Amino acid sequence: MSSSGSDGRRGGRRARHSGEAFWWALFSAGGVMAALFVPAFVVVTGVLLPAGDPAVAAARAEAFGQAVGWWPVKIALLGVIVLSLFHCAHRIRHTLMDFGLRRYSGLLKVPCYGGALAASLWAALVLRGNTGLV
Amino acid sequence: MSQGGYRRPHRWAWWMERPGYMRFMIRELTSFFMAGYLVVFLVTLSRVGAGDAAFAEWVGALSRPGWVAAHVVALLAAVWHAITFFGAVPQAMPIFLGEKRLSAPIAMIVMGYGPWLTVSAVVVWWMLR
Predict the structure, then answer these.
(1) N or C end of chain B, less CB within 10 A?
(2) How many domains does the structure of chain B reveal?
(3) Which residue of B has its CA nearest to A119?
């Protein structure tokens, strides 16, 4: 979870500047959500939904559509997706820094957190029922 | 933003120098695959709302070998993220019962793997029942 023991890259002196603490909070919450939910989501949409003969697939598709169409589930999905996206954005940014882009750490916020923000807005539109975008 | 002080320059492939570094980098790279999956998941959710025919067409595409392989990779990445995340629970959140610290395996099960399996079972049941 925290890697501050080995290299201190996510904590320490830098945390007091640059809003790093805020991103760290999103990162931690997103890490929990991604760990709890994403493996199951992959199993459902990537494995079980496309598998099986047409009759089974049709029944599963209908069940899936009803399950994710209920508004409390939509709200929960939005929370899980947004937090997971920011978790990934934070890790991707720091991984790119570890690959030699540390001097661009500020600039990397734009594609990483900007991408997470854009995908979050898209998620909100999708779950609100506006599906004209894809 | 000036950091000050001396930073030892290192090769971009520094993480290949030790197995521990390599494990660290594999854990970090899971985020790229999970981010990619989340985008595909959003496409799936948007197709649900686009009507039965559009959704059936998208699910049909997902059954092609390339998409199945991509999801297997995404699943490995997501599972590895969960294992490493919950594996760090005892260090990140030590639990004390009186004076006694809860042992690491029990803390991992109570605070990590147990909730993970429960949530996974509920999600799969709920989404496909």
Answers:
(1) N
(2) 2
(3) B39
